Structure formats: structure tokens, C-alpha cells
TrEMBL record:
Taxonomic source organism: Leucobacter exalbidus
Keyword ATP-binding: yes
Protein name from the UniProt record: ABC-2 type transport system ATP-binding protein
Family assignment from sequence similarity: Belongs to the ABC transporter superfamily.
Domain (ABC transporter) ranges: 2-227
Alphabetical keyword list: ATP-binding, Nucleotide-binding, Transport
Highest taxon, organism lineage: Bacteria
Lineage, top ranks: Bacteria, Bacillati, Actinomycetota, Actinomycetes, Micrococcales
GO molecular function: ATP binding; ATP hydrolysis activity
PROSITE patterns reported in the protein's UniProt record: ABC_TRANSPORTER_2 (PS50893)
């Protein structure tokens, strides 16, 4: 499971992550939702040991990422797309990731199959569509068969087929008992995908819980989000602190 507690990240005097706390539980897809610049990627980067928190903690199964013995076996991640060399094939890329993390290369075939890339395994990544690239990123994240997955905007720019595939795939990964944390700025899309939601704006958690809890009396998650951020604008205008948590 993922446990973020009182996480703060400051750049200069500005807190881009401002006392964020939430958990992502096994067997559930947790949606980290918020507009551009809300602090989603910053939170994920700290969780994955790519950046240091100013204060607070971000733990994976009780320990920080940097303390994990074999990180790829515990947590799979995709930030900024697949991050693969465009001249390589999908198979070559996955073999390279597997070999550099002591993962048996037979796992490469399994993840190619799981993500529907088997037929494209010899195509150079430079010729991939956006959707295939995202699948490759997810395939690499799954190489170590981790119990925890962290995916930053995996559906960004995808067509409806790609979005539908990703949604169903993430749900199936959670149904296998994994904790799946996925960020998005698309509220309506995530409403169908996630079990639990954390709504973040300007570095602060505005609401968290199940769909019913977060929606409250609002018709959709998007309506709830706009109502919550309108409150934020009001508070900013009056300079009041301490709202929404
Ligand atoms: N190294 C940095 N120095 C200064 N500010 C930064 C740095 N990294 C991120 N920020 C700022 O922190 C804020 C949060 O950025 P972050 O990327 O976490 O947001 P996000 O919710 O993931 O949004 P997006 O979907 O646009 O990436 C932004 O205003 C960004 O400009």
C-alpha cells in the first residue's frame, strides 16, 4: 500500500505540495485528480524517490522508495510516458529493463502479452502510436510483477479505445490485489476507473474518499471538483487559510 503523510514540497517559499495525506490501498484504483500544476507529479516523484520532500513522508509498504531492496519488484511506475529509446523494439527495451533489474527475461513475453503488444514486439518504438507507447510504459512497470503501481496521466492524449483499454486494464490489475495509484486531470474519465479519489489543487487535498463521499450532493465528480475549487478561489480572495481539509 501507499501512505502519504503530511507531505510538503517547497520550491523557494512556494509550497507545491502542501501537507498532503492519503493512502492507496491494495485491490483498489486510487485516482489522484487535479488540474495542471496541482502537485500530482510532484507527489509521485517524491513517492518514487526522484525528488526529496521538504517534510512529511511517502511510503510504499511501510518504507520509503530509496530503502526498497529491489524497487521494481515492489513498485512499477510510469511517469512521462514509456521513457524508451525510439530506435529499440519493445522487446529489446523490456529485455534491457528486465536485465538491469535482475528480472527473468521470460517475464518480457508475459508483459507483452498482458498489454497486447505481442504483435508489435519487433516494431521500433519510434513507430509506435501514443497508445502503444503508453502500453509499453505499463508493460515495463509490470515487469517485476509489483503489488504497487504508480502511473502519471496514463491516458493523456489517448483516443477513446486507448482510454477504454487503460481503464479496463487498471481495473483488472486492482482486482488482482494490487494498489494502483493513477493521476489525471480528467475527472469524468477517472470516475469510471477509480474506486477512491484524492482531489488536489494548488498543492492541497480538497477532498478524498470513495466516489459517493467525494461527490457529496453533486451529480458528477467534475461538478464536485468545480464546487470545491470555487471555494478555493473564494478563500484566496479573502486570504483565509485552512480550508477544505
Ligand atoms: N523544480 C521545480 N521548481 C519550481 N517549481 C516547480 C518545480 N517542479 C514543479 N514545480 C511547480 O510545482 C507545481 C506543481 O507541479 P506538478 O508537475 O506537480 O503538477 P501536476 O499536478 O502534476 O500538473 P501537470 O499535470 O501539469 O504536470 C507547478 O506549479 C510547477 O510549476
Amino acid at each position: 500500500m501507499i501512505e502519504i503523510s503530511n507531505l510538503v514540497k517547497r520550491h523557494g517559499s512556494r509550497a507545491v505540495v502542501d501537507n498532503v495525506s492519503f493512502s492507496a490501498l491494495p485491490g483498489r484504483v486510487t485516482g489522484l485528480l487535479g488540474p495542471n500544476g496541482a502537485g500530482k507529479s510532484s507527489t509521485m516523484r517524491i513517492l518514487l524517490g526522484l525528488d526529496r520532500a521538504t517534510s512529511g513522508s511517502a511510503l510504499i509498504d511501510g518504507v520509503p522508495y530509496r530503502a526498497l531492496q529491489r524497487p521494481l519488484w515492489k513498485v512499477g511506475a510510469m511517469l512521462d510516458g514509456p521513457g524508451a529509446n525510439k530506435g529499440r523494439t519493445a522487446r529489446a527495451h523490456l529485455r534491457w529493463v528486465a536485465q538491469s533489474n535482475a528480472i527473468p527475461t521470460r517475464r518480457v513475453d508475459e508483459v507483452l502479452e498482458l498489454t497486447g503488444l505481442r504483435d508489435a514486439d519487433k516494431v521500433r518504438i519510434g513507430g509506435f502510436s501514443l497508445g502503444m507507447g503508453q502500453r509499453l510504459g505499463i508493460a515495463a512497470a509490470l515487469l517485476g510483477n509489483p503489488r504497487v503501481l504508480v502511473l502519471d496521466e496514463p491516458t493523456n492524449g489517448l483516443d477513446p479505445d486507448g482510454i477504454r483499454w487503460t481503464r479496463q486494464f487498471l481495473r483488472s490489475l486492482a482486482e488482482e490485489g494490487r494498489a494502483v495509484l493513477v493521476s489525471s486531470h480528467l475527472m469524468s474519465e477517472m470516475e469510471e476507473t477509480a474506486d477512491d479519489f484524492v482531489i488536489i489543487a494548488r498543492g492541497k487535498v480538497l477532498a478524498s474518499g470513495t466516489t459517493t463521499e467525494v461527490k457529496g450532493e453533486h451529480r458528477t465528480l467534475e461538478d464536485a471538483f468545480f464546487a470545491l475549487t470555487e471555494n478555493q478561489a473564494d478563500y484566496r480572495a479573502t486570504g483565509t487559510e485552512g480550508w477544505g481539509r
